[in-house]
Amino acid sequence: MHTPFQRSLIHLAVASACSIIALPGHAQQAPADSVGNPLASPVVNSATNTAASPSAAVQPDAVRPDEVKPLDAKDAAAAAQVPPMPAANAPASATVVVSGSRIAARGFTQPTPTTSLSAVDFEKAAKPNMFESLVELPALQGSTGRTTNTYSTSSGIQGLSSLSLRGLGTIRTLTLLDGQRVVGANVTGVTDVSQFPQLLVKRVDVVTGGASASYGSDAVGGVVNFITDKKFTGFKANVAGGITKYDDDKSGTLQAAWGKGFLDDRLHVAVSGEFTKQNGIESPGFGDSAANGRDWYHNPALQESTREMQAAGAPRYKSIVNAQHIQYAKYGLITNGPLRGTAFGPGGTPYAFQYGTDCVGNFCIGGDRSGSVGAGTNLSMNFKRQVAYTRISWDLNPDNEIYVTANYAQVKSVFSPNPGAAKQGNLSIRCDNVFLPASVAAGCLAGYPTGIMSVGTSNGEFPANINVHPTRTQRRFVVGADGKFQVFGKDWSYDAYATHGENTTVIHVRDITLNPRYNFAIDAVRDPATGQAVCRSAAARAAGCQPINIFGDVPINPAGWSYIAPANGPMQYTKSNQDVASANFNGELAQGWAGPISMALGAEYRREKYAVHGDPYGAGLAYESPYSDLYPQDPTLSTTGDNWFAGNYHNGKGTFNVREAYVELNIPFLKSDTWGEANLNIADREEKYSTAGKARAWKLGATWKTPVDGLRLRAVSSMDVRAPNLSELFAAMTVTNQAVNNQQGTSIQIQQRNVGNPDLKPEEARNNSFGIVLSQPSWARNFNFSVDYYDIKVQNVINSLGPQQEVDLCYAGNQQVCSAVSINGPAGTNYVLAQSFNFASLHTRGVDFETAYRWNLGDYGLPGSVTLRGLASRTIHSISDPGVPGTTPSEGAGNMTGATPKWKALVSQSWDAGNANLTLTERWISAGVFNNEYIECRSGCPLPTAAHPTIYDNHMPGAVYIDLGGSYNFAKGVTGYFKIDNLADRDPVLVPQTNLSLALNPAIYDAVGRTYRAGVRVSF
């Protein structure tokens, strides 16, 4: 026994370590809290990956091999009050599958690092969507959600909540539901977490290591596995609301779940329904102020110096604020010739534009910034999710069940990528334009010999901003059976299922213009017969052209707006199907001298296909479209499509299937009082794709429980794969006109035909990790700590090339690329297929830390207990190599315009006493640079290159966000709670660009500001 003084020293030492790295995320267990409340039933200790159980809570036979026993109402209420910690006397006989392995074996500690978050952790986070809690984990970097891609009209991933581990991208993270694949919500195959049934999720395992050998393709960065409560009994509900400090992004959440057993509990039914609405942050429109009083924007930009300045030693780029673009104004600006600097105001009145000072390149500082468009991008989307889920199971006997699940989910988003439709000095306006003020028309005739001047405009007179409406609808059904049986006296378990999933995505863009119609409509003259303004082009007039006035603050006539921005804007309809049949078995092969030898094995068949249709104006008038009757033929539009200002969706389709089988073994090979215990974990998976051919994934890992008190070592090496997805294989063709240089340096006009590449092969990743785990040593029974080093090298990375790169590679002798190049034919026949190839590589390595510690305040005469928890990730390198001659690898670690800061940490301190809980959380991002490839210099700079530009200041600050939450049990089964995110209302760090864009990086920084939420949970 330690003396009070010794205990105090231990507490101080451990608290100091935990203050560096601590997160709410260890789903762990202790036998009882400081006031004697029983804790939750078994959960997973992510430091040891074993089942922890309170004494006399669960008998080993009551634990299924694929799940832990569900909480009853009493235990669930206790779990909400007290953070779980690992039990000192957890029985080794309990078995549980943690997602880093398919093995379910007594006492097995798997080598792959895995963090498990319990339902209690998510309740404390109090987010409207589990996704918003998960993306705060340090290992998750580069995920997409409703605050990312708000600038995008055409990407197709807007509003898609997808997870990315290690900054390797969402396509290299496998997201599962109960260990099963879910149909993709995009043609890239990534799933939408918002479509998952979240109220019934009792645990989420985050596997921060390659897991392709266990789960198949895409698990290069790792696996995120959502595990539901399959035998939920009772009723529970959650009602919550939220709002920001700025009176926007209002949210409401309603969730309910019910479960009951019938016919002596052989028939079990569980259903849940969820609705969440988040109103988003509306666009403030034009100007340099962010929405609703946010005063941090100030029009940041990267100002580019001239070639002469760079030759004299000036840096190429300099970050400025209060930037004014010189190529356009809100209601029109003449950008060339003697009238340059003439802008148009109310009623079309010309005035001298205020350019500001320090004008270099495209930007000045200060001046008239009323037409700036960067602040007008939504900071977060209007977002609505609806999910209905049911699971029905029938116990054939106490050991075997059959089941069916059904899930319906719909996620809708609405956002504005930018106000108006900026034209940066590229409009050719004739001197006889009927809408030009007389003085300007006269000056044009006198000063422009060609009769044409250049005009730039933000199109501030447009009656509405572009608004994008993605809607994703999922229907998914699973039929399966699981249970256990005996083989030669050994217990084995199985899980076999078949699933069919469909996801339809409809994207509709409204209040957006057709480029050809806009150009016809602004080129207006006076009809000599009637004296009325008409479109100059007779063909356009015959097709219904209506003239519009873009000079000054003059409302567009409704007929003109309907002509250039028809009600049926760009539309895309995508349907993705996924069919899976899988069978998995695991159990004991034999009793070895150091323990039971266990095995998991299985086979799977999967087929995926998609079909996408764009509207005729975007995809091309010659293509069939389900929307053809909504888009009348117009001879003034391009028959090949790409007529819209943005959102030109094209047609495509594709399918593939894969057959695969795997085997995994756990072999204990050491059991000694002197040397401790050790086991070997090996796995192999063979895959055959109908498109990409054969692929193989394997894993070799080991764990060692050393003779040192509480100390374990773990290591794993694996080969992981990612097969090309449907989009990369079968992307629909788009065509643009470009110029390339041939071998003699002569410029040749070509068609750039962007298209998928059906000859792509799988990416291959070598994933190595080594970890040290300190779990509940005798000198600190409530302490857990782990540190893991990882190194991931991905070869044959699928990456697209530019047309000139392909031409150069072909001349260098690369025959694979030459098949996509044809530039020696007659004029008009030359083309380059801009495809993806297996040329690039990725290399990331770093260190993960995880810790948790709790002490009883009763030792000091105070109520309750305090828990410190944390995760931190240090990215040492994140190197991307395009693999193309003339390019150099780039370092992404600490690049604050990307997704991988050098340090990312989440730390929490939680106090629990009886019915009350308070939790303080800190989210930390370390400082970094604008770009690692930039050379920082103030004067005497070297000449910049394309790979290494020079910049005045390359530093980017980090950020600390503090969150505060709490809960109180008002009565049995009734808990009220609150949460304040970004308590200090920390402003986001500005990330300037070479144009006036949103200039934020919501993948790293909080762009919303202080947010208040409160709610009530009930259960009985």
Summarize the structure.
Helix content is 10%, strand content 43%.
Structure description:
With 1020 residues, this protein is mainly beta. The protein folds into 2 domains: 107-282 and 389-417 and 469-510 and 571-614 and 651-724 and 760-800 and 836-1019, Beta Barrel (Maltoporin, Chain A), CATH 2.40.170; 323-368 and 423-457 and 515-564, no CATH class. The strands form 11 sheets. The protein has a 22-stranded antiparallel beta barrel. Strand 42 (903-913) and strand 43 (916-925) form a beta hairpin. It is globular, with a radius of gyration of 31 Å. Residues 110-223 form the TonB-dependent receptor plug domain. Pfam families: Plug, TonB_dep_Rec_b-barrel. It is found in: Cell outer membrane.
CATH homology group of the largest domain: TonB-dependent receptor, beta-barrel domain
Mean pLDDT across all amino acids: 87
Tally of distinct domains: 2
Distance between the termini: 41 Å
How many strands, what sense, and barrel or not for the largest sheet?
Answer: 22 strands, antiparallel, barrel
The rounded Rg comes to: 31 Å
What would CATH call the class of the largest domain?
Mainly Beta
Question: How many extended strands?
Answer: 50
What is the third-level CATH name, the topology of the largest domain? Maltoporin, Chain A
- Summarize the amount of helix as a percent range: under 10%
Structural class: mainly beta
Report the portion of residues in β strands.
Answer: 35-45%
Global morphology:
globular
Tally of helical segments: 14
Protein name: TonB-dependent receptor-like protein
Organism: Pseudoduganella lurida
Keywords: Cell outer membrane, Membrane, Receptor, Signal, TonB box, Transmembrane, Transmembrane beta strand, Transport
Domain TonB-dependent receptor-like beta-barrel: 484-983
